[in-house]
Backbone:
């Protein structure tokens, strides 16, 4: 799998160090409040597992399956909620966790839907990675792990056609792996 990468962007150690700091920020922000985490599947699975074990707050974990990439390397622009029912979030402080902020459409759609039908007490977002690029939809996560350039990355939960999620680090995929196959 490593031979499919152009280079490693964030090594395991760097991720570990950043997660310690991010978890401390989240813990301080919510102090003694009870938190409900809504992890977006499948991309945030590994990030959520590692981050939340560092957050010593009373918390609940729920998951939501959404997709906007549909197997390619560019956002399709359509955010699909694969499970239509949101967990009961009324009166809760909700933190949405996602792997990566790209066009912003996914988080924007999730936060909008939360405020329309979820009626939480508060809703914030936390992403492991944020691409430096113009957003197609307004979205400002309160917590960000790393800023990065606009490149397609895999590993640590991030995939290309469901592969590479189990890499323990994050790397830039060689363009020849996806060139010619087209998005989707
Ligand atoms: P948007 O464009 O809605 O995208 O902010 C967020 C979702 O798109 C996926 N995504 C990526 N997945 N490598 C990936 O494996 C990437 O570089 C990448 N960029 C965006 C991801 O599912 C994210 O939740």
Residues:
């Amino acid at each position: 799998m490593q031979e499919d990468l152009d280079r490693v962007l964030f090594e395991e150690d760097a991720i570990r160090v950043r997660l310690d700091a991010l978890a401390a920020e989240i813990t301080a922000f919510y102090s003694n409040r009870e938190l409900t985490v809504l992890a977006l599947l499948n991309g945030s699975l590994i990030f959520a597992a590692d981050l939340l074990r560092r957050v010593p707050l009373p918390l609940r974990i729920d998951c939501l399956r959404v997709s906007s990439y549909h197997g390619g390397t560019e956002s399709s622009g359509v955010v699909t909620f694969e499970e239509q029912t949101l967990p009961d979030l009324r009166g809760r402080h909700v933190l949405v966790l996602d792997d990566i902020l790209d066009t912003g459409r996914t988080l924007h759609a999730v936060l909008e839907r939360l405020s329309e039908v979820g009626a939480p007490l508060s809703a914030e977002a936390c992403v492991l990675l944020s691409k430096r690029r113009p957003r197609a939809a307004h979205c400002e996560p309160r917590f960000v792990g790393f800023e990065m350039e606009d490149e397609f990355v895999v590993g640590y939960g991030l995939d290309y056609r469901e592969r590479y999620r189990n890499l323990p680090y994050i790397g830039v995929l060689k363009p020849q792996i996806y060139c010619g196959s087209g998005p989707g």
Observations:
- Residues 12-30 form the longest helix (19 residues).
- Residues 43, 68-69, 75, 98-106, 152-154, 158-159 surround xanthosine-5'-monophosphate (CB under 6 Å).
